[in-house]
Amino acid sequence: MKAFSGLLWKDFNISKVWFFGWITIVFVIYLLAFGLGEYFNEPAVVLPFVVMLGFFHFAFIPVLIYSMLRVEGKTQLWLHSPHSGVKLLLSKMIIAFLYSSVSLLIVDGLGLLSLSWQKEVLPYLPWKEGIFFNLGVMSSSIYLGCWLIFYWTFYHFLGKFPQVKNFRWLLLVGIFIGYQFLSALMIKVKWFMDIYEGWTINVSRGFFLSGDPGNSNFEISSEAINIPIIPFISYFIVMVSVFYLSSWLLDRKVEV
Q1: Which of 13, 120, 192, 198 is the most exposed place for a label (fewest CB within 10 A)?
Q2: How many domains does the chain have?
Q3: Is the residue at 207 inside a domain?
Q4: How far apart are CA 92 and CA 208, in angstroms?
Q5: Which pTM was predicted?
């Protein structure tokens, strides 16, 4: 346990500059949006910027993990590490998840602050919608992060074989196309679609901003949409599978 905490601390140190740099960007964008709202006397102008910052977190974990992998690649230390590939990669995933969670909570706080200026047009604070949004963004970011780890590890693993080293990126493109092709085939299978459409949960459409330059309006829709559960289950299985496959490849002593 002590050794793993050392891995976490190491990954924290090599990524903290990226994190604090991103938080600085978040506050700069928010202050600029706030200034625009004050200048045009439209407080609601800041809300699309807050939502945009939230959507940026789809890429937060993949980008942060990639930055850590690049640093590790320059040192080559994990070629001689006694830790398994699972621990080496899981440490990076945990740090990226914690940083992303903190960043998303900061954006949530800025969103609540902005929503408080719109309380005269809001029937309630959309806290439930916010939770679903956070879960969707975070789970998607983790999913993309696992795929990035797999592509990065597989790319450098192929570097051990001179026969494919010069065109290994084509194999990565082939994996991507093949996965998308299989996914498209699955949605054409009747029994799969019956299950797909049968397992759903109802979620509010949430909030939106409407209007023109002279009259903006922030509203919440009470309508509900059906969100299927099967994709989340299948994405989870794929995510765990590619993560463990990446760990197995890393245990083969990947050189970068």
Answers
A1: 120
A2: 1
A3: yes
A4: 35
A5: 0.81
